[in-house]
Amino acid sequence: MAFVKDMLRMWAHSWKRFISIAMITLLGVAVLTGIYAGCRDAFRSTDRFFDAQGLHDVQVLSTAGLSNGDIAALRKVNGVAKVQAERSQEVTFDLDGRKSATMQEIGTNGIDQPYLQEGRMPKKAGEIAVTRKFIRDSGKRIGSRLTVTPESASSDTSDTNDTNGADGTNETSGTDGAPSFPTKLTIVGVVLDPQNLSNPDGYSAMTSFRSTATTDYTFFAPSDGVTGTLYTSATLLVKGGAAESTFDESYENTVKQVTDRIDGTVKTDRQKARRQELLDAGNKKIADARAEADKKFADAQSQIDANRQQFNQQVDQIVSMQAGAAAAGAATNGANAGAAAAAGATTPQLDETTRETMRETIIAASPELTQAKQQLDQAQSQLNEQKASTEQTLKTKENELKTSIPQVRWYVQDRQSLGGFSALKSDLDSIQSLGNAFPIVFLLVAVMMSLTAMARMVEEDRSLIGTYVGLGYGRLAVASRYLLFALLACLIGGGLGLIAGFLGIPAFLLVVLQGMYVMPGLRLEYDWLYGSLGIALFVVGVLAATIYACVQEMRQTPAALMRPKAPRAGSRILLERIRPVWNRIGFLGKVTARNIFRFKSRLIMTVGGVAGCTALIVCGLAINDTVADLGIKQYRDIYQYDLMVVSDDSDASAMRTKVASDGRVTSSLDVRIESGDLTVAGSGDGDSGKAGSSGSESIQLVAVPEKHLSDLGEMVTLQPVSFGMLGTSGVGKTGSLKLDDDGVIVAQSAASALGVKAGSKVRLTNGDGVQATAKVSAVNRNLIGSDVYVSETYYAKLFDSKDAKNTKNSKSSEDSEALTWNAMLAKLSGSDTSQTDYAESLEEDSSVMKAVSCAHMADSFKFDLMGAVVALIVALAGGLALVVLFTLANTNVSERVREMATLKVLGFFDREVHHYVNREMMILTVMGVILGLPLGRLVGGMLTMALNMPSLYFEVEVKPLSYVIAAVATMAFALLVQLFVNPVLDRIDPISSLKSVE
Fold first, then answer.
1. Which of 393, 567, 944, 970 is the most exposed place for a label (fewest CB within 10 A)?
2. What span, in angstroms and rounded, lies between the C-alpha atoms of 904 and 907?
């Protein structure tokens, strides 16, 4: 019992060490669990939401639409739980200019169900549910009415063109049965699209611009009133997919098995079958057209024949009358009147030659008959010409049918192809990677400080330990005094750390996340396994340091332990050997130098601990500086143009005319901009930037006219980039990169995320959903957005653009119109404010889809999520620095109580004693700061590898002010610690402190 009481008395006496260990453990566990818990809570709530709304695991798209046969084939694939055929249609409407939307049918099989936020779900034809983004932009509300206009044939359902024949018939285009929605609409509800969780009222970085293949909004409509037998897409749920977390690798493997089966069997067969359906439909239309034409020609021929028969009868009557009159005249001149009477009673018989001659004579003599005959002959001639022309047209169509209907292409996509899903996953993964890296530093510092504190604690009880061992107590029992002390401090600190880690930090992060994404059903959850392991990690580290300190002391005999520890042998330090310097240092300065360098363990612990904390602060500020400069570097340095204007294909000419007429442009470059994807398949064969690399990135595909390839460098700074180790990169000379017809130039942001480098092979998807394998000729410096630049000729080669294969050498108007230049990069005159105002005014024009001012983007770009994480890391690093300095300062004082008492006996005033002790700590702190500043820059330079986010490349930069802030903050913490240490020095009693231990 006395042993226990003494142990508790010793614990109470060492309360400062207890608090230090507990605080370090609290901070470490909070950092280890907090960022992880915040991201995990977001992951789990999102996964539950996706499962509740039935977000598809796989989506199948086709360039020719999907038929019932395609849907039936997908249902037979092994591993498919549900298949839902979906119909959609692109429409336009007037909302401060021309806007576009996708009319999406609400599925009846429970897949991709919108989440109701306000009002009710649409049930009848003409009712729709809209997103909150539309409500915010339009100012409309539930009950408002809207009229939309369907766009022309969608590329999603047809890749062929209607061609009018001479007979007025149309060749098949594959659009028969295309979806059609009501155009008079009423808003009855506000919903959240599960495919896009972006918060319309929060921060959303503009990293890409819409093209003709995208729409501004999505309207959800019921099946009632929707017509059409072709489907725009098919969405699938995979067996076992809902049981896995959608963000885990196990889920990706489950889905990949099904997509591989679709790609391997169903895809090829149905592509061929669908194309054959189109060919059969085309042939049937041609056959029907021929039958209809033959019937019309037969009717026309019958009419002509009837008219000609009637004409011939009339002429024959005249011939008969004239022949009869001639015969009667001949009989009158004869002698026999009876013979004359008999002759007049009968019509003379004429041979055919005579009759035909008389017909011609009669027709020629009568203008009316001549005109009638000409009309008949002309009608017959025209009919014959129409027959020949129609037959030739139909034969031509039969010959051209196979070439006019291209090969049908299927695109099998998983959730990674959804921009909202991939952005959320990448954001959370990047933040979580920071949460996995920084706790390592906290753990190392905790072990170092625990070793220092516990070693001093054991050393102070050296004589007591020898006494207990001499009395027969086991070394394990004696060591348990210190092990239990460290364990209790870790458990209390760890418990408080779990509260901060699973409640405080996640709540802070989720507030920021909810400003970026809408996550219904979000709640904080505790992970028993991860929390327990987090505490166990620090418990093991601290206990290991404590055991080491105990073993170092207890391996001596009890007699040796009960005697005071012999003072450290005197030795010269390196500075003493530099006589010119040493001789000029005062007495107290020499004492300080010896105290600093002779006690190497204290030197290493203090410098190392301060350096680690300073490095954390620098690293956090490096993230802040990097993010703060992203917008300026991208929109003022890399993008040299001031304005980007994007229009619909049909409005491209009007858009250019509008911009030119305003007189603000000093120079411009017409380009084509499309939203697409860049994919790298893991192969390990060297084609990709790194073996086994894989992934997909949303890109902005920029096609440049062949004649103006050299002008691209005047609008965009082209600098080649090469990637090094640990995520580092080197940037080449400005202007040394040129766009040519041998490959594409990929933005650094996309190349870094996917491991792409010059010479890699990637798969590009253009705005029409057409895929092609392209060669990467170079990687260009780019920080925001994922631009891929391609020449007009190479674009035609990749995507088989008609009439554009010879644009490099051809000057015909047909070739020059192969691509529609739907965008313009322009340099403007005027101030930044006037440029921003001009861009806003352009968006009000009906011919402009999007107008973006680089000046506005440079000023407004921000990254709230990363800023919040930076603030959290800097705050925790500052707290760690404060605890470390407090622990080291108190340990330093406890080690030198007799020395301080001696100084007081010698006549040192309290202030002189403060200066004597604090000067050493300040010098050690300065040394730690000097070491921590470059260490922080080195760690910060590796952030690019950890922060692998879509459409963003972190070109790490640390401003001089950040180094100053980190140094001043650490020194300020050291000065603050002095305020706690000085009273301890004042309370040292010289008499009791100098009493002999014996």
1. 567
2. 5
Q: Quote the pTM value.
A: 0.70
Instruction: Characterize the bridge pairing of strands 410-414 and 58-66.
Output: antiparallel
- Please state at what angle helix 267-332 crosses helix 68-75, rounded to 10 degrees: 160
Type of residue at 707: K
Tokens found for residue 812: 């015909």
The pLDDT value recorded for residue 54 is: 92
Q: CB of 224 within 8 A of CB of 125? A: yes
DSSP 365-423: H-HHHHHHHHHHHHHHHHHHHHHHHHHHHHHHHHHHHHHHSPPP-EEEEEGGG-HHHHH
DSSP 468-520: HHHTT--HHHHHHHHHHHHHHHHHHHHHHHHHIIIIIHHHHHHHHHHTTB--T
Q: In which residue are the tokens 């009868």 written?
A: 313
d(CA 10, CA 455): 15
Q: How many helices (H) and strands (E) are present in the chain, helices listed first?
A: 31, 23
How far lies 518's CA from each of 202, 424, 451, 512, 930, in Å? 9, 10, 46, 11, 44
In whole angstroms, give the CA distance from residue 521 to residue 49: 7
Residue 32 above 70 pLDDT?
A: yes
- Three-class DSSP category at 782: coil
H/E stretch holding 425: helix 419-460
What is the predicted pLDDT for the residue at 919?
Answer: 87
**Helix or strand or coil: residue 128?**
strand
User: Of all helices (H) and strands (E), which one includes residue 534?
Assistant: helix 528-554
**Coil vs helix vs strand at 60:** strand
pLDDT at 891 (0 to 100): 80
pLDDT tens digit sequence for 258-285: 988 888 778 888 888 888 888 888 888 8
The beta-carbon contacts of 12-20 under 8 Å, at least 24 apart in sequence, are: 14/457, 14/485, 16/886, 16/890, 17/453, 17/454, 17/456, 17/457, 17/485, 17/489, 17/887, 17/890, 18/485, 18/488, 18/489, 19/489, 20/449, 20/453, 20/883, 20/886, 20/887, 20/890
The candidate with the shortest Cα–Cα distance to 125, out of 217, 219, 226, is 226
Confidence (pLDDT) at 127: 93
Residue with tokens 């995979």: 238
Q: How confident is the model at residue 52 (pLDDT cuts 50, 70, 90)?
A: very high
Q: Is the pLDDT of residue 301 over 60?
A: yes
| 147 DSSP assignment | E
Asked whether 177 and 229 are in contact (CB, 8 A), the reply is yes
Flag whether pLDDT at 764 surpasses 80. yes
pLDDT tens-digit profile of 844-896? 787 888 888 998 888 877 766 667 777 887 888 888 888 888 888 888 888 78
Least confident of 104-113, 359-368, 946-955: 946-955
What does the pLDDT read at residue 671? 92
Reading the block at residue 3, the tokens are 């042993």
Answer whether 53's CB lies under 8 Å from 106's CB: no
Say what the pLDDT of residue 549 is. 85
User: What count of Cα atoms within 13 Å lies in the side-chain half-sphere of residue 473?
Assistant: 19
140: its two tokens: 């409309």
Segment 50-61 mean pLDDT: 91
Q: How far apart are CA 872 and CA 623, in angstroms?
A: 12
DSSP 8-state secondary structure symbol assigned to residue 968 = H
Cα separation, 122 vs 224, in Å, equals 10
DSSP per-residue string spanning 3-45: HHHHHHHHHHHTHHHHHHHHHHHHHHHHHHHHHHHHHHHHHHH
Length of the chain: 998
For the chain, the helix, strand and coil percentages under 3-state DSSP, each to the nearest 5: 55, 15, 30
Closest C-alpha to 704, from 671, 746, 750: 671
